[in-house]
Write a structure and sequence with these properties.
The complex is a heterodimer of chains A (about 80) and B (about 300). With about 80 residues, chain A is an alpha+beta fold. Chain A is about 40% helix and about 20% strand. Chain A has three helices and four strands. The mean pLDDT of chain B is about 95. The chains are: A alpha+beta (about 80), B alpha/beta (about 300).
């Protein structure tokens, strides 16, 4: 079971697409809204050095943006 | 061998796909994602028949309409990277996923992508204060000073989006006029936290870990200045996604595919284009839909004749 955390803003469409991708692939995840949660924003900045969402943390691997191919690799999807 | 390959999943591509399926044309639609450039719009109020819809919901609705059609094939998550015309007049389309497809006819509805500033620091600070999706990242600039670069509708909407969070917004306009809708212009000009800098171009984005300033120039006086700020929102317009057919069809000086506006045919027999990638005068979802349908009907005529 992977530990997945996604940092989002409510107005971010790529965040929505990433969450849809998780739902489609049965990935459970924790979500932090960095528009309002300042501690989460700081955490995201430190982990990723990114001032842009989504940032996804899969078992410590940081993925920036809705990058389907990297997400699949980090989650071990698409392999039998 | 397909009868038709549609390249692009924005409003134009989907419209043509729906019509193609209803005409029972053996069709493949290749797209990396659905919805086109409006995907990131927070609120679209001019999609006819719908008073208000988000770009995300519009994309879902377009995709749903296309997938409800019988017979159409969809290669999603694939980006067309090259088109080759063979001696017999048919085409091979290759994708970034390493796939190739054969077809008799092609409709290009690949739209546009955002133009970049092309100045030092822009790439290095992409996602570190340089922003290309204003609606996504504006909430991260609460209480900060930022610049929005551009003078059209997307720049004005960008200013209005980011004003909900930022304490001060500089709008950097290359010319002496704003080109966006008068309604948005008024909102931007009358807001106390907005300052418009005319005849202004960005020369450099500066920073250490994150953006901490820009160097810019007034093109009229030639004066160069620096300004401390924490965000640069780039909204300077669009570049057509026509690279993969360069040399095969005629492009205008801006890279738009030149079409016959009655039929949407390009200079290369067997290839049509519609929407923002074509040399259409106005980039609009509703127009892309109409032009793509026009193209599809003309393709259908061609198929029936052959």
């Amino acid at each position: 079971m992977h530990k997945v955390l996604i940092y989002t803003t409510p107005s971010c469409v790529y965040c929505k697409m990433t969450k849809e991708f998780f739902a489609k692939n049965g990935v459970t995840y924790e979500e932090k809204n960095v528009a309002t949660d300042m501690a989460a924003r700081q955490e995201m900045l430190e982990k990723s050095e990114q001032l842009g969402v989504p940032v996804i943390d899969v078992d410590g691997t940081i993925i920036v943006g809705f990058d389907q191919k990297n997400l699949e690799a980090a989650l071990g999807l698409g392999k039998k | 061998m397909y009868d038709l390959i549609i390249i692009g999943g924005g409003p134009g591509g989907v419209a043509a796909g729906v019509y193609a399926a209803r005409k029972k044309i053996k069709t493949l639609l290749i797209t990396d994602s659905f919805g086109g450039q409006s995907l990131v719009s927070s609120d679209i109020q001019n999609w006819i028949g719908t008073r208000s819809i988000s770009g995300f919901d519009l994309a879902k609705s377009l995709e749903g309409h296309l997938r409800a059609q019988e017979g159409i094939e969809i290669a999603e998550g694939e980006l067309a990277v090259s088109v080759r015309k063979k001696n017999d007049g048919t085409f091979t389309v290759a994708t970034n996923g390493g796939k190739t497809f054969e077809t008799k006819y092609i409709l290009i509805t690949s739209g546009s992508r955002r133009k970049r500033l092309g100045v030092p620091g822009e790439d290095a600070f992409d996602g570190k204060g340089v922003v290309f999706c204003t609606t996504c990242d504006a909430p991260l600039f609460g209480g900060k000073t930022v610049a929005v670069v551009g003078g059209g509708n997307s720049a004005l909407e960008g200013v209005l989006d980011v004003l909900s969070y930022a304490s001060k917004v500089y709008l950097l306009v290359r010319s002496e006029v704003l080109r966006g809708d008068p309604v948005s212009q008024e909102k931007v000009r009358s807001h106390p936290n907005v300052e418009v800098l005319w005849n202004t171009v960005v020369l450099e984005v500066k920073g250490d870990r994150f953006v901490n300033g820009i160097r810019y120039k007034n093109t009229k006086t030639g004066e160069e200045k620096e300004m401390p700020l924490e965000g640069v929102f780039v909204e300077i317009g669009l570049l057509p996604n026509s690279d993969f057919v360069k040399g095969l069809v005629d492009l205008n000086e801006f890279g738009h595919i030149v079409v016959d506006h009655k039929t949407q045919q390009t200079s290369c027999p067997g290839i049509w284009a519609a929407g923002d990638v074509s040399d259409v005068l106005y980039d609009q979802n509703n127009i892309s839909v109409g032009d793509a349908i026009k193209a599809l009907l003309n393709i259908y005529d061609q198929i029936r004749k052959s």
